[in-house]
Amino acid sequence: MLYRPVRRKDREVSDLSWMESVLDRALACHLSLFDGEWPYVIPLTFGYEPGHIYFHSAKEGKKIDIIRSNPKASFCVEVDAVPFPNPKGRSGLLLPYKSVVGYGHVSVVPDDEEDRKRHGLAVLAAHYCRQGVDIPRPRALLDKVAVLDLEIVHMTGKQKGPFIER
């Protein structure tokens, strides 16, 4: 089974535009990989466009090794997680949040697909700096960096309120 349905249906959000707004506001994406023996989770900067999440990476290392042997991945982003006192609750604390969790296949964009690498880096840069799309990316830079493309198979949203308006 690719995913298990959300247990708390009252917190599930399946609206794509809502999930995209959470992805747009998130500062880090936690990428989860599996090396066959242990799970491996790493927070990364990212860029989202419909159906894809892009990351950049060193060209070698544990993450790249795992992706090449097992491209199945999951991811999670969260926003608005700000605890505040809740004297009526069991713990005395309330932690509202909005999150998106998803699954997909991640691959290393081949070096000979220069346009695809540039596109992934532009999407990532635009996530943090709206004018990032126009940042020049010379061939020398492309040769030094790996671009990862997570093709999303399924994602779902979840929220717990109340929320403080921002």
From TrEMBL:
<dbReference type="InterPro" id="IPR012349">
    <property type="entry name" value="Split_barrel_FMN-bd"/>
</dbReference>
<protein>
    <recommendedName>
        <fullName>Nitroimidazol reductase NimA, pyridoxamine 5'-phosphate oxidase superfamily</fullName>
    </recommendedName>
</protein>
<dbReference type="Pfam" id="PF12900">
    <property type="entry name" value="Pyridox_ox_2"/>
</dbReference>
<dbReference type="InterPro" id="IPR024747">
    <property type="entry name" value="Pyridox_Oxase-rel"/>
</dbReference>
